[in-house]
Amino acid sequence: MRNKLLVAAVVVVALASVAYAAFAQLLTINGTGTATGTWDIQITSITAKNQTGATDHATTPSFTATSATFNVDLAYPGATSTYDVVIENQGSIPAKLDTLTNLAAKNAESPVDITYSISGVAVNDTLAAGASTTATVTVTWVAGSTTNITTQSKAVTIDFNYVQNT
Predict the structure, then answer these.
(1) Distances from the Cα of 115 to the Cα of 40, 98, 101, 137, angstroms
(2) Average model confidence (pLDDT) for the chain?
């Protein structure tokens, strides 16, 4: 009886070893994938909204792709000019605003009495495929300024850098 049990145990161990060896081999899967989509984020318009004591300097604000350039003449302290910048996702891939021009650094440049600000969009805002968003850019000659100049202007280019929203 003991020999039969010993033989049975050896057979079970041998079968288990063979089964383990059969299933412990490296499995390699090869294949390819295809992703489709179009990337097309762009500024489609810049419209002057409110201008108090301001005129465009030589040319109206201009834009290319996702960059907008402004150069506004302001007549006196407290003068402002506001623009709506429409940004559209005309592609099929959702996007996210990754970076925006550092306006604090631009505002520190001369003349420091002219400041730019942006509202309506912020870093990490998403833009779905086929959707649009409006950024409001405001240019201001600081009201408390004592600069004795009749007109001031400062040119600034604002970059709206979008990446794929994953």
Answers:
(1) 30, 23, 13, 10
(2) 85
CA-to-CA dists, residue 155 to 35, 52, 58, 98, 110, angstroms:
41, 18, 11, 23, 10
> pLDDT digit string (tens) for 6-60?
777 788 887 877 777 777 777 788 888 777 889 999 999 999 888 887 776 556 7
* Predicted TM-score (pTM) of this structure: 0.73
Domain 41-164 matching CATH 2.40.160: the answer reads no
Q: Which residues contact 73 (CB under 8 A, 6 or more apart)?
A: 54, 55, 56, 57, 151, 152, 153
Domain boundaries, the chain: 41-164
Point out which residues pair with 30 in neighbouring strands. none
Tokens of 139: 């240019």
In this structure, what token pair is assigned to residue 40? Answer: 């097309």
